[in-house]
Amino acid sequence: MSDDYQPFRAPVAGGDLCGGQWRAAPHSGQQTTVLAIHGITASHLTWPWLTDRLGSHRVIAPDLRGRARSNALPGPYGLRRHADDLARLLDFLEVDRAVVVGHSMGAFVAVWLAHLHPDRVDSLVLVDGGLPIPRDTGIDPLLMLGPAVERLSQTFDTEQTYLDFWRGHPAFSADWSPRVVDFARYDLDGVAPTLHPSTRLAAVVENVMELNGSDGYTEALRGLAVPIDFLRAPRGLLNEPTALYDRSVAADWATQLSHLTVQEVDDVNHYTIIMSDRGADRVARAVKAQIKESERTPI
Q1: Largest Cα–Cα distance in the chain?
Q2: Which one of 19, 23, 77, 96 is least enclosed by Cβ atoms within 10 Å?
Q3: What residue segments make up the domains of the chain, in order of their start?
Q4: 3 state DSSP class of 113
Q5: Cα(65)–Cα(81) distance, rounded to whole angstroms?
Q6: What is the pLDDT of residue 167?
Q7: Domain AB hydrolase-1 spans what residues (predicted)?
Q8: 173 phi and psi, to 5 degrees?
Q9: pLDDT band at residue 144, thresholds of 50, 70 and 90?
Q10: Cα 245 vs. chain centroid, distance in angstroms?
Q11: What is the pLDDT of residues 29-55, one digit of tens each?
Q12: pTM of the predicted model over 0.85
């Protein structure tokens, strides 16, 4: 990990929310802070690719409740509760407002944060997430996550076995890197020979049911007034040509929300849109544009 990185533990309901931050030194205190929220079975180590590209700006990235080092936090794990956790995290780290970037389920959390705590959010960058995903009748919504859910029920006898599991993931067939290794190692919990992924399956089950826009989510999204960038990956979770979001779905939301801009990110899948250099280049471009606008028109 880079020299400007430091872990944190922040008190929230039921215990401590863990994660990491980059460039938290006092000299960067006057600059816009970025809050980065990971996906449904991930951790804050999805973000080093992006943090490298944000210059001297402070980046705060939690492990959401039920994931990674925050997996001891009790449920419920609903999206609204994640948003409340993040508001408390900003209080603890003495951050008034932030540009918020969320990937996959993290984008849904970002929307709820902006809705429930509007004084904490300058703008949103939603990365292949945050737009309601219709749930087909009779189809288990966990199937949408593919191997991400399968691994949560598995055990691994060694760290290398777990790394081999990730090495075979089709999303990283052309993008395996030391940072993906770091991400996978950080995700591992337990003791050999019964090592297991750190994410709680109960948290995933609860959250995946909320991604269809229910429980007031669609209304919350439509009611936002902050600038929103939506970045779409053209390939899915398994690097398949069918994207999580069809191009027409994103375009339709852009017609409904005048302050939402859709950006296409070429040659990435749902993971490598943030966990690769070329993906992070595009996400960073969007985040920097929002930072610039935030600093041009301070609240």
Answers
A1: 55
A2: 96
A3: 5-134+200-296
A4: helix
A5: 9
A6: 95
A7: 33-158
A8: -60, -35
A9: low
A10: 16
A11: 468 999 999 999 999 999 999 999 999
A12: yes
Residues 6+ apart with CB under 8 A from 244: 104, 128, 129, 133, 233, 236, 237, 270
**Joined tokens for residue 131:** 């737009």
pLDDT at 8 over 90: yes
Region 161-173: mean pLDDT is 95
Q: If DSSP codes are grouped into helix, strand and coil, which group holds residue 18?
A: strand
CA–CA separation, 259 and 96 (whole Å):
23
Question: What distance in Å separates the CA atoms of residue 68 and residue 44, rounded to the nearest whole number?
Answer: 8
What is the Cα–Cα distance from 89 to 211, expressed in whole angstroms?
Answer: 23
The helix/strand/coil state of 168 is coil
Spatial separation of the C-alpha atoms in residues 41 and 43, rounded to whole Å: 7
Contact in structure between 102 and 125 (CB atoms under 8 Å): yes
The number of CA neighbours under 13 Å toward the Cβ of 19 is: 31
Q: How confident is the model at residue 94 (pLDDT cuts 50, 70, 90)?
A: very high
- Strands (DSSP E) contained in 91-205 are 98-103, 121-127, 188-189, 196-197
Grouping H, G, I as helix, E, B as strand and the rest as coil, residue 231 is strand
Strand-strand pairing, 196-197 and 188-189: antiparallel
- Here the tokens at position 278 are 């070329």
Q: What is the mean pLDDT of residues 148-177?
A: 92
**What architecture is domain 5-134+200-296?**
3-Layer(aba) Sandwich (3.40)
CB 19 within 8 A of CB 69: yes
Q: Which residue has the higher pLDDT, 147 or 203?
A: 203
pLDDT over threshold 60, residue 137: no
